Amino acid sequence: MSKMEFRQLKYFVTIADAGSITKAAKTLNISQPPLSRQLKILEAELGFKLFKRVNNKGIALTEQGVFFLEKARELLYKTDNIIMQAREMDEKVNKKLSIGTTIYSSQLMFKDIENYQCLITDNINFNIWEEDSLSLLHLLNDRKIDIAYIHETESFSEIMYVPIIEDYCVYVAPINNESHLGKTISINEIAELPLILLDSNNGTGLYKQIVDTLKTYQLNPEILCECHDSSVLSQLLARGFGGTILPSSLITDEIRKKYTVLPIQNNPWKLEIKLAWKKDNYQPTHLSKYIDMILE
Predict the structure, then answer these.
(1) I want to staple 51 with a disulfide (CB 3.0 to 4.6 A). Which of 59, 85, 225, 286 is the partner?
(2) Tens digit of pLDDT for each residue in 191-227?
(3) pTM score, two decimals?
(4) Percent helix, strand and coil across the chain, each rounded to 5?
(5) CA within 13 Å, CB half, 265
């Protein structure tokens, strides 16, 4: 009896799409040796090679591999649809929609949820995840969430990306700290002030934009703290440790009452917020309605 697993089929298809075990391992967010072992186990189970070496630089599908890839895609597609239909049945019973967001796009998500609740007649339970963009994409690809608000993308062939807003950043600091500043602030001025920056787990996103720009301007900013948690950033800001740079959509009326919020001169920092969801022939009704509302 075959011991083949759906996970191995998914790994095989990802390797075939990437054309490289190294690239596939990065897409799957696993290390290369375990992925290579799973491929060897699959080939041993099948009794034939799926890939062959090409000029010692890459890999290509064998004839058997081409045939098996087509069948593997069909099986995974059918399995995904079964899962989606089962999830929709669960959502009809539990009335649940799982949404992922970065901290930077959270206010946009809240507004969309409010608008969505005004459109529907059912009471929907929302399951909210806050992560960095790349972590959200992996959650989406693994079907742990239905939709995500992100500002970075990765090469997942089964995920749809649609830009929904360009969001320029502003400088935010406790009112008493920056009372000497004018109505706008320059990059040079920002570099001379204590900064608190939110860093993603992989050093990308807005954090990288800010650091790279300051290096381009040959400035040595006073980065007082690099934190990896949005609640820590909020606490440090509230306690007056320094200022930060945030997307303008994140600035609520409450924040404007408590903090100095300044437009940035010749602003180089912006985020393109995108909506991401799994490309499925079959989507849960609640998800389809939510996407349609946002894209109208």
Answers:
(1) 59
(2) 999 999 988 766 667 888 898 999 999 998 888 888 8
(3) 0.68
(4) 45, 25, 30
(5) 10
